[in-house]
């Protein structure tokens, strides 16, 4: 696809960019490798100073870069500003804590003696140049949650961003440059997906991280595996949202609306499959459907808009095919199920709730990337767990219950990277983030995320000889 800013609210192409040629790519990889040789020697105090400066600049830029994100991919501008400020928070979190998270570790004296050493320690050393292949849906946050810990660990980054958010991608390179990071520490590569393989195979590139679709993850993983390079993958999600009889139904239904339509429904960790116990199904379905129906769909630059357009015409067409297939096989649209008639321009889709989902429908197995929810009625806890796990994905999950027995069972049995009780899934720098099954592997954020791109180095010192021997 072309590298261009196309306003999804109107379909208008606003700006196009030329892809980098082979010579320019080579120059940037060389610059990154050179930068790493020096940057890896900086101390945590200096890295923290630079990252805090980037955070300060981003905080000042938040209103402007929010409008850029909204123009490029359609998220409501209120959510775009919140995304920018979330990035500020993550930068400051890692600037403050990285030295502690990567502190040298020392085994117990007994274990050291048992190894035959006089002393031993474990050190976290940076890997080098890390390639980040990032998606359009959270065009700042997805990058910063990689970049902040990677830079604090002493790595340097090359960003291959999605082709529909080029201005946001270029802003990120400019941000780190203005903050004072040495030239080459963080660079944006305006290239198509076909260029990724050669970049990843370059021996100067040490590792890669990708957030995106399952096919993209498979491709990057296969290339990196062939080169024996470390990867972290965060792929698709079809997160369950389970509501049990002891739940606060009013709160569960209200939160469910936000959990489904955050980012116009285009979020890997958005709740997508709503699995409701038969004892409270009718009450939940009524409230949830009413909440989805009442959302304001409109211009994402309008502060009152709840749901803007989907990011692309293709994305809307993919969503329509899933919904149409479900309806043709017997599903019922409790609301929505079509393009909103009042929005003829742009790539809008009405908030939708589908009931009567069966395994014969594509939507039962495939991820819905848009404001479409599927409702399931279950008879008890066992069936709730079975339906929740009946997905190729396992990113996160949500459970509403006040029964401790339910809590223990869902923690034990849900196949997901996270279980959020009585609330919606959210990412925070203090909590590890990642999935199971086809949702990928590895973790971002927290101490786990910053250590993913470190060489965990064992240092062993032999025991001194006994002078009397």
Walkthrough of the structure:
The chain is α/β, with parallel strands linked by helices and 469 residues long. The protein folds into 2 domains: 3-235 and 439-459, Aldehyde Dehydrogenase, Chain A, domain 1 (3-Layer(aba) Sandwich); 239-421, Aldehyde Dehydrogenase, Chain A, domain 2 (3-Layer(aba) Sandwich), CATH 3.40.309.10. The protein is built from 14 helices and 19 strands. The N and C termini lie far apart (74 Å). The mean pLDDT is 97.
Number of helical segments?
Answer: 14
Main-sheet strand order equals: 11-12-13-10-9-15-16
User: In angstroms, what separates the terminal alpha carbons?
Assistant: 74 Å
Fraction of helical residues: 40-55%
Rg over C-alpha atoms, rounded to the nearest angstrom: 24 Å
In the CATH scheme, what's the topology name of the largest domain? Aldehyde Dehydrogenase, Chain A, domain 1
Helix-strand makeup class: alpha/beta
Q: How many E strands? A: 19
Q: Mean pLDDT score, rounded?
A: 97
Task: Give the name of the CATH superfamily of the largest domain.
Answer: Aldehyde Dehydrogenase, Chain A, domain 1
CATH class of the largest domain: Alpha Beta
Q: How would you sum up the global shape?
A: globular
> Would you identify the regions where 5 or more consecutive residues have pLDDT less than 50?
none
- What would CATH call the architecture of the largest domain? 3-Layer(aba) Sandwich
- Count of the domains: 2
InterPro entries: Ald_DH/histidinol_DH, Ald_DH_C, Ald_DH_CS_CYS, Ald_DH_N, Aldehyde_DH_dom, ALDH_GabD1-like, GABD/Sad-like
GO molecular function, one term: aldehyde dehydrogenase [NAD(P)+] activity
Protein name: Succinate-semialdehyde dehdyrogenase
Organism: Streptomyces scopuliridis RB72
């Amino acid at each position: 696809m072309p590298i261009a800013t196309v306003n999804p609210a109107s379909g208008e192409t606003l700006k196009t960019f030329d892809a980098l040629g082979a010579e320019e790519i080579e120059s940037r990889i060389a610059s990154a490798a050179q930068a790493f040789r020096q940057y890896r020697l900086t101390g945590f105090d200096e890295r923290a100073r630079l990252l805090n400066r980037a955070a300060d600049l981003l905080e000042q830029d938040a209103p402007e870069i929010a409008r850029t994100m909204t123009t490029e991919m359609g998220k409501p501008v209120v959510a775009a500003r919140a995304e920018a400020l979330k990035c500020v928070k993550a930068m400051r979190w890692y600037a403050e804590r990285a030295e502690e998270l990567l502190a040298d570790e020392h085994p117990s004296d007994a274990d050291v003696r048992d190894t035959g050493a006089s002393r031993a320690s474990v050190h976290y050393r940076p890997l080098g140049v890390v390639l980040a292949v990032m998606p359009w849906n959270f065009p700042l946050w997805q990058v910063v949650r990689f970049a902040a810990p990677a830079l604090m660990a002493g790595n340097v980054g090359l960003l291959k961003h999605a082709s529909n958010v080029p201005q946001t991608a270029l802003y990120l390179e400019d941000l780190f440059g203005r903050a004072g990071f040495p030239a080459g520490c963080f660079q944006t590569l305006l290239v198509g997906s076909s260029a990724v393989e050669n970049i990843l195979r370059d021996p100067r590139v040490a590792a890669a991280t990708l957030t995106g679709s399952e096919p993209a993850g498979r491709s990057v993983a296969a290339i990196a595996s062939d080169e024996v390079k470390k990867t972290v993958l965060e792929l698709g999600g079809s997160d369950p949202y389970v509501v049990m009889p002891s739940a606060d139904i009013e709160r569960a239904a209200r939160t469910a609306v936000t959990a489904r339509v955050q980012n116009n429904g285009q979020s890997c960790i958005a709740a997508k499959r709503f699995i409701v116990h038969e004892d409270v199904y009718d009450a939940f379905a009524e409230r949830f459907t009413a909440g989805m129906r009442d959302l304001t769909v409109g211009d994402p630059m309008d502060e009152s808009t709840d749901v803007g357009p989907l990011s692309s015409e293709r994305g809307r067409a993919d969503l329509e095919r899933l919904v149409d297939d479900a309806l043709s096989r017997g599903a019922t649209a409790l609301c929505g199920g079509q393009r909103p008639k009042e929005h003829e321009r742009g790539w809008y889709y009405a908030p939708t709730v589908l009931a009567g989902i069966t395994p014969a429908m594509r939507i039962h197995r495939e991820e819905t990337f848009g404001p479409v929810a599927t409702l399931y009625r279950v008879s008890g806890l066992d069936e709730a767990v079975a339906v929740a796990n009946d997905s190729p994905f396992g990113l996160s999950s949500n459970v509403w219950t006040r029964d401790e027995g339910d809590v223990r069972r869902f923690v034990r049995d849900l196949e997901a990277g996270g279980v959020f009780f009585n609330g919606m899934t959210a990412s925070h720098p203090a909590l590890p983030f990642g999935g199971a099954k086809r949702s990928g592997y590895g973790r971002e954020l927290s101490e786990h995320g910053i250590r993913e791109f470190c060489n965990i180095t064992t240092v062993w010192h032999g025991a001194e000889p006994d002078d009397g021997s």
